[in-house]
Amino acid sequence: MKNSGVFRSRGVSWLMHKLCFTLGSMLVTASAFGGNKAFDDGDYTVKATLSSPMNTIAGLTEWAQSINHVYGITSIVLVLVFFAVSIPLIYAIYKFRVSEDEDLINKKPPKQVHGNVVLEFAWTIVPVILLLFIAIPTWEGIFSRPVKPPEGALKIKVIGHQWWWEFQYPELGITTANEVHLPENTPVFFELSSADVIHSFWIPQFGGKKDVLPGADAVNQMFFTTPKLANPEKAGGEYYQGQCVELCGLSHALMRFEAVLHSKQEFDSWAKVHNQPPVIASELEKKGELLFAQCQVCHTISGTPSEDLEKQMLAMDPPAPKQGPNLTSFGDRRTLGAGTRKNTYENFAKWVREPQSIKQGATMTAFNLSDDDMQAIAAYLRFSTAKNY
Ligand code: CUA
């Protein structure tokens, strides 16, 4: 019987299975090198490079570094297992290949190893040792984490929405969206809750992930000490990417945000000026301010009538929180649409006119404004609300 191309060793299918599993695990590890390249003017893209702003292997906090430590050990074990499996596999494929003139029907099967005590013990003990090798540093990492946030940590409430992030600083009276500003080298304490479905909060370079759950009694916590600035001379903050990591609906992949790290001094001045009302510097901005009246059912800007409206809505029974992000200091934000586009005039106009083309399923209403009106509202939001800090 001609049967070339069929593997005749029974061990081969087993080895194939192990090899696929190992390769899969290695791919997961390799994905650590990938990440989202933010702020593209065009469509959302994913690029994988070592310097990606979302790479998971360049931890900056103590917490992230302890995760990376376990990551490194796991990767070494994975690579060893990969070679231990793939080298015998390649050897077996070559050595036991079927030749053209072989009589497979009358040929005896190879020597069977079922029930071989030495082999059974060996392939039980070796994985146990490998798993212990991974488990011990994992336990060490988990149990070395403090259970409570340190005294005096900066408290920030994180509220997940489909598909953007709200950040409230209760002690500072600040509410912002999609950019969480943090002082360097300072303990911070996040309280995580959701306005709708389950999300997950993650700043890869700052540490692990945590679920963001709906319901008042399901508030998760996350705390760590922020890293030091990489370049303290440079003003304006250092940006680190964050992302929702729980499938939360149509535009889950577009639910991003940025953590902005400042010197303590710069953070204080950011906090001081954040809630200042917009400064109207031109006729265009004045016109934009009037146009914003139709936005204020969903959006608030501190120091404007939209803030009073928010208070009234929250005082209702039941309270009716606004559906859209707070736009105080919108002019300072690098992105719009929750980290999906640069905050440019073109992207702004596209977002206002056809938000569905940027983020499918977004609750943002489409406004078909004339070019004149668009320029006015953009001038108001992008320039009047910008602060010097
Ligand atoms: Cu929110 Cu995924």
Describe this structure in words.
36% of the residues lie in helices and 16% in strands. The longest helix has 34 residues, at 62-95. It is built from nine helices and twelve strands. It is elongated. It has three domains: 4-30 and 61-143, Orthogonal Bundle (Helix Hairpins), CATH 1.10.287; 154-273, Immunoglobulin-like (Sandwich), CATH 2.60.40; 283-384, Cupredoxins -  blue copper proteins (Immunoglobulin-like), CATH 2.60.40.420. It is of the alpha+beta class and 389 residues long. It has helices at residues 10-30, 62-95, 117-143, 264-273, 283-291, 305-315, 345-353, 355-358, 371-384, and strands spanning 154-161, 164-169, 174-177, 179-183, 187-194, 199-202, 209-212, 220-225, 238-244, 256-262, 335-336, 341-342. Bound molecules: dinuclear copper ion (CUA). Dinuclear copper ion binds next to loops. Residues 160, 163, 199, 244, 246-248, 252, 255 line the site of dinuclear copper ion.
